[in-house]
Design goal:
It comes from Deinococcus seoulensis. InterPro entries: Put_sensory_transdc_reg_YbjN (IPR019660). Keywords: Signal. This is YbjN domain-containing protein. The structure is a single chain. Strands 2-3-4-5-7-6 form a six-stranded antiparallel sheet. The protein has a two-stranded antiparallel sheet with strand order 1-8. The protein has four helices and eight strands; from the N terminus they run αβαββββαβββα. By secondary structure, it is of the alpha+beta class. The protein is globular and about 45 Å long. It has one domain: 2-Layer Sandwich (Yope Regulator, Chain: A), CATH 3.30.1460.70. The relative contact order is 0.14.
Length: 165
């Protein structure tokens, strides 16, 4: 076979096929999208599909969108940040435990120890312990990734709660 003919055929195939990093296929878009848009409505729908009860919080012109997620006995505040033109770049989940009656007993050593061993972030603020986790969503995310993130976060919430005084 003619080497020039084979080279020309390979060139045509190369130019007509999108470049794919690491041999991975391009993300599917449209009705059967694998990658979900980083919008509040899509995030809410994906969380509901994962089995959580989700309520969108009232919109406020001074803040990014937020919602309340009920996951078993836990009420999780979820907010989106760095939003522009309806799309956001991060989603954060946050849970807190009110210790305002015993504010003097709040243990920052507990939060420091936690932060050195876990990906979730704990802190003390205004008489309460908080546990947060943030996931980047700029450019989209998969429903499986969102569900895994929320599952991991809720596991950490349970573990953190067991550490509380």
């Amino acid at each position: 076979m003619n080497k020039n003919l084979v080279s020309a055929a390979l060139l045509v195939l190369t130019l007509s096929t999108p470049a794919l990093a690491g041999g991975a296929g391009a993300p599917v878009t449209g009705a059967n999208a694998q990658v979900v848009a980083a919008t509040p409505a899509a995030l809410m729908a994906a969380l509901k599909e994962a089995g959580y009860r989700v309520t969108m919080d009232p919109a406020s012109p001074d803040s990014d969108p937020s919602m309340t997620v009920m996951a078993g006995e836990y009420e999780v505040s979820v907010w989106l940040s760095n939003c522009s033109a309806g799309k956001c770049s991060r989603v954060t989940a946050s849970t807190y435990w009110d210790y305002s009656d015993s504010e003097d007993d709040l243990d920052t050593e507990l939060t420091n120890d936690w932060n050195s061993n876990y990906y979730t972030q704990s802190y003390v603020y205004e008489g309460a312990y908080y546990l947060d986790s943030t996931m980047p969503i700029a450019g989209g995310y998969t429903k499986a990734t969102l569900k895994a993130w929320m599952t991991d976060y809720l596991n950490d919430v349970q573990d953190f709660e067991m550490e509380l005084p």
